[in-house]
Amino acid sequence: xxxxxxxxxxxxxxxxxxxxxxxxxxxxxxxxxxxxxxxxxxxxxxxxxxxxxxxxxxxxxxxxxxxxxxxxxxxxxxxxxxxxxxxxxxxxxxxxxxxxxxxxxxxxxxxxxxxxxxxxxxxxxxxxxxxxxxxxxxxxxxxxxxxxxxxxxxxxxxxxxxxxxxxxxxxxxxxxxxxxxxxxxxxxxxxxxxxxxxxxxxxxxxxxxxxxxxxxxxxxxxxxxxxxxxxxxxxxxxxxxxxxxxxxxxxxxxxxxxxxxxxxxxxxxxxxxxxxxxxxxxxxxxxxxxxxxxxxxxxxxxxxxxxxxxxxxxxxxxxxxxxxxxxxxxxxxxx
Length: 335
Hints:
The radius of gyration is 26 Å and the shape is globular. It is built from no helices and 20 strands. The strands form 4 sheets. The protein has a 13-stranded antiparallel sheet with strand order 1-2-3-4-5-7-8-11-12-13-14-17-20, with no helix packed on it. It has a 3-stranded antiparallel sheet with strand order 6-9-10, with no helix packed on it. The chain has a two-stranded antiparallel sheet with strand order 15-16. The protein has strands at about 20-30, 30-40, 45-55, 60-70, 75-90, 95-100, 105-120, 125-140, 145, 150-155, 160-180, 190-210, 215-235, 245-255, 265, 280-285, 285-300, 305, 310, 315-325. By secondary structure, it is mainly beta. About 0% of the residues lie in helices and about 65% in strands.
């Protein structure tokens, strides 16, 4: 008798798979940073944890950890990032000379923590509400210089300071409606995405130092402002073709108060105008328009080398027009 006998049901208990670890080798500004990624997931995706760490011989490091809790609706998440970097600063004073090697070592330590909720309503609409805390610190290593005017040697001890304390409330709204297609990930041909983000920011940014009371204390400027950002893209199939596409993208940003350029929109680099360095274009307002034409060079290659698989190759040609600025008037010659 092969009659199936069902087993008695029992309540599900949370169960985690084994901790996954993947080695990482990172080359950063000519230094080698060995490290690793780690990952753990609850079997039916109720919770997951992913993180990474790397460090070089100068003790510069990057660390991050991201966790998500899908126990209830909406989903709760927690993210933590910590990065350290050493910068060599030149010392120059015509009335003195630096005793060691005309350089001062400055160590930066950047911390950011995000906590929030995210979910979706209807089929294609997503929202995310979060609080972001930033703490940027630095310390200057001890250095010594010879004061020619007074004929004396002056030494400075190690000096630590905080140059940013930031608090941000962020609301993101995003709608994705890209029609299913075999090449959707590399070449969407129908649909659109639109993302809106509003943030209210309360920042204390280092402006000067005070020696009142005999101690050296930070003097901060307060930058409280609203930031708005739009990113929308429309995908179109090119008539009389089977796999060609055209996408049109618009990015815009606006800050409603006068702020230090540290808080500006930056319009260069991978996220903005390609071909320009990230910090080369900045301002309180941002406007970028992009058009991209994509078409296949090869399809159905079905080529595999060990665990690397190649099926198709697409080529994209793009044109961009945009700028970031802070004045009330728009100078189109700068775009």
